[in-house]
Amino acid sequence: MQVPILKQGNYLIASVQSALSDDDLRLLRDDLSDRVGRFRSTGVIIDVTALDVIDSFATRTLQSVAQMLKLRGAYTVIVGIRPDVAFVMVQLGLTLADVGAALDLEEALEHLNRRSHKPNEYRTMRTGDPRGSARGGGAPSRPTLSGVNRRQDQDEKPRSGHASPRSLEHGR
User: Fold this and answer.
1) Is 77 left (phi over 0), alpha (psi -120 to 50) or beta?
2) Domains within the chain, CATH numbers bracketed
3) Considering the entire predicted model, what is its pTM?
4) Which of 43, 102, 123, 164 could anchor a disulfide with 132, C-beta 3.0 to 4.6 Å?
């Protein structure tokens, strides 16, 4: 059974309607990976509310899907794990480490929105701009203390009333 996947802004929402076979889970994995690349999605929500059981294979598959999508640039949130399913997963030692979890779709969207407004550390380091302007939308600002420009920043003279990065480093 094919899982419907909707596009909502920068996010994809996969709604699992019934129990999935191992082949269905693999198809979901491949479909999500393809769509994240095609739509350049930054977040994926997998809604498992309809599932009465999440077995060890399904748990491992969801974990690997989340890791794979993270490598493709999208964070994954699992929505709707029932209390009894969560209890059994914990009892069996099945975890979804490094995967977001939410009670419902609204909470998942809020979680992804909070993550997307958080500065990306790599882009901040490379561009000096916490908004990640190197992705597009204008010229990136010059890095202040990283990489190639570090020596240039250290050699700059402080403007009146302003401390240079070098003087701040050495307590001057």
Assistant:
1) beta
2) 5-116 (3.30.750.24), 121-169 (no CATH)
3) 0.67
4) 123
